[in-house]
């Protein structure tokens, strides 16, 4: 990118954020956790180009948990640890059309529908390489630090404890899956790995860099470090495109047309292969658990920059 292109992009992102910030919170139906309503006005937008250029506008220093966005990285490492074929026998790649925490499975193949919903992410956590919980979490965290270009990324212990203490739904899903042989390890261990990944705190700027690492074939474009094997990047970005936005994935693919993953903390991370990683953070959620402003920003970004992968060039 030329200096002029970089500057121009920055101006456009600033204007876009400002305009969207004025639209208020009228479509928001919930916050997770409910106390996050106190942070409702936080709003950040960031992009990292595959040439390493980074734009960060709004509240890009604020840290928030990855929540479901972590599923992308857990799946990526599970693929690397187990290979494509073995991974696919344990977790499918079909959009479920169900909410992220649904007790629904691919009954025919005896596996969760996909790794972007809780059931599938729990399986990914189960098959992750590592002798015990600590090793699995440490391996995953090490990779996340490379994606984000920040060796200091950490699990938020307080959040992890709170989620562990309020995990009936995920425990229910896990015990049910284990009764059907879809999970092999100890349920408490699997849950701890999964929720630790959910509790990793990032800034919007880091999140865009994580997306850029995926867009850049698995190598962080700022640091040059490799976060994942290039072979599996297509699997990960593919499943983000078809399943990344929970039961609104089809709508998103149609309207926005960018591979992305959302989390209930209000973050959305997108990866456009060979171009850019993008992120938005705004805590107000719609009925699917996707950030309301995040979706609006991405709609506008997609339109204005012609980012829809099937857009008329
Ligand atoms: N920790 C949350 C859960 O498992 C994450 C889900 C999400 O971001 N949708 O319920």
From TrEMBL:
Top-level taxon of the source organism: Bacteria
Keywords: Acetylation, Coiled coil, Hydrolase
Stretches that traverse the bilayer: none
Molecular function per GO: glutaminase activity
Enzyme class per UniProt: hydrolase
Annotated coiled-coil segments of the chain: 1-23
EC number, UniProt record: 3.5.1.2
Residues binding substrate: 68, 118, 170, 194, 246, 264
Catalytic activity: L-glutamine + H2O = L-glutamate + NH4(+)
Assembly and interaction partners: Homotetramer.
Family membership: Belongs to the glutaminase family.
Protein name: Glutaminase
UniProt organism field: Actinomycetospora termitidis
Portion held of the full protein: 10 to 322 of 371
């Amino acid at each position: 990118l030329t200096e002029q292109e970089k500057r121009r992009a920055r101006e456009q992102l600033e204007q876009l954020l400002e305009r969207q910030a004025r639209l208020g919170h009228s479509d928001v139906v919930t916050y997770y956790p409910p106390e996050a309503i106190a942070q409702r006005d936080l709003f950040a937008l960031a992009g990292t180009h595959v040439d390493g250029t980074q734009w960060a506008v709004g509240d890009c220093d604020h840290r928030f948990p990855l929540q479901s966005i972590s599923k992308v990285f857990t799946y990526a490492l599970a693929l690397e640890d187990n290979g494509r074929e073995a991974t696919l026998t344990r977790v499918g790649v079909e959009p479920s059309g169900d909410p992220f925490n649904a007790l629904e499975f691919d009954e025919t193949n005896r596996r969760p529908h996909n790794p972007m919903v809780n059931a599938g992410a729990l399986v990914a956590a189960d098959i992750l390489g590592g002798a015990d919980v600590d090793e699995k979490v440490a391996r995953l965290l090490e990779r996340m630090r490379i994606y984000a270009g920040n060796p200091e990324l950490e699990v938020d212990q307080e959040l992890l404890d709170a989620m562990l203490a309020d995990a009936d739904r995920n425990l229910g899903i896990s015990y049910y899956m284990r009764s059907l042989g879809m999970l092999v390890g100890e349920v408490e261990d699997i849950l701890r790995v999964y929720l630790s990944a959910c509790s990793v705190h990032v800034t919007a700027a880091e999140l865009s860099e994580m997306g850029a690492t995926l867009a850049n074939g698995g190598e962080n474009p700022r640091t040059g470090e490799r976060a994942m094997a290039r072979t599996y990047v297509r699997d990960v970005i593919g499943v983000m495109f078809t399943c990344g936005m929970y039961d609104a994935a089809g709508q998103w693919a149609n309207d926005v047309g960018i591979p992305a993953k959302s989390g209930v903390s209000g973050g959305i991370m997108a990866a456009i292969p060979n171009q850019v990683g993008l992120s938005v953070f705004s805590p107000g959620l719609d009925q699917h658990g996707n950030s309301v402003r995040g979706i609006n920003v991405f709609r506008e970004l997609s339109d204005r920059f012609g980012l829809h992968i099937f857009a008329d060039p």
